[in-house]
Request: fold
Amino acid sequence: MGNPKAFLEIHRQEAGYRPIHDRIHDFGEVEQTLNTRERKLQASRCMDCGVPFCHWACPLGNKAPEWNDALYKGDYELAYRLLNSTNPFPEFTGRICPALCEKACVLNRFNHEPTTNREDECAITEMAFQEGFITPHTDIVRNGKKVAVIGAGPAGLAAANDLNLMGYTVTVFEKNEAAGGLLRYGIPNFKLNKTVIDRRIALLEQEGIEFKYGEAVEVNDAFAKEFDAVVISTGTPTARDLKAPGRELKGVHFALEMLSQQNRVLSGMEFSKDERVTAKGKDVLVIGGGDTGSDCIGTAHRQGCKSVTQIEIMPKPVEGPEDPQNPWPNWPRTLKTTSSHEEGCTRRWNINTLEFLGKDGKLTGVKVQEIDWKPNPEGGRPIMVEKGEPEIIKAELVLLAMGFLKPEHPQYAENVFVCGDAANGASLVVRAMASGKQTAAKVAAYLQR
Reply:
């Protein structure tokens, strides 16, 4: 720790976002960056806290105190080496991770001004690329064994990266036209520019990983026999649906239908007028209060919507920095206001969807009901009770952002491993990457028996 008094003398400073009037007209990344001096000052705030709860909270076990110290001292190369020793793709998490480490930071408990770990790791990685500290590994010794990775999302990429560096010949099969999974087809460009993914994929290819796109693989016994091991990292492809009357009306879509299509449009793909899912000139209703719903709000604004309303069936989270139900160092389930929410959105909680309304087959509105949650006298899930009269929310576009169903898998051959969301259900990118690394270690242990 270079400056033992920095956490007392320097306040937390976030880079912030581009002005709303500017950013809603394009899909460029909304987050700004601090200059080098300010970034070093933020890194200096990482204190010698004795027990680094940031390390405990991070699924990857990132050693934030060590690389923050190197960043403060201006040694970006060392900082990246320390960061990359646990995190294979810090340029991803540095942009989109909710930063579990920051909520567990001792400074968050002390004065609710935790170290800016997420922004720091992004700054470290971008400087490392800029200065040429990140180069392909050219000294990998192959061991003659082949591994297939099915799915090129964060879990699959993390597993493929580790296995490749161990000397296995890795082939990644991806059903889509490019790698990244939800990094590419779910997260909007205004949060993660896709050139960031392309840059990393190019590096992995230079290190010997083969990517085969447009190939939906069925993992049966015959396929498993072609490789020494197979890793399934296909994510959670099935979105949770809402079987309310009128679901078939034109204008009701899953969130990823719009998000993935918009990202493809930005990459140069064209869609017909009938295929296009757009919020232009429409009143939009987003059903679901999580990050995917937030991404829909930001995308709707950039497409030129008339208005956006977001509803959530669960109660409004507690406001403020502390959650009495999940005290520090656990993750606080508090009200989250994203950059997309700041761009304009009506947010409502305790709202149940009753029916989709339409005319001539097209959506015109949604009948909803305000509800309350009462304790269940028998224990278990609270009981939903109606409150007041049903109402109609005007909408020409509804986006269902209610999460994803955990996949079910058949019994696979002994040499087949499942990781990431495909194994555990929908979760964070950082958890998917951690699962990919853990699975790579399991594959290596299996093949070395």
Summary: Residues 429-447 form the longest helix (19 residues). The two ends are 42 Å apart (CA to CA). Residues 227 and 314 are 46 Å apart (CA to CA).
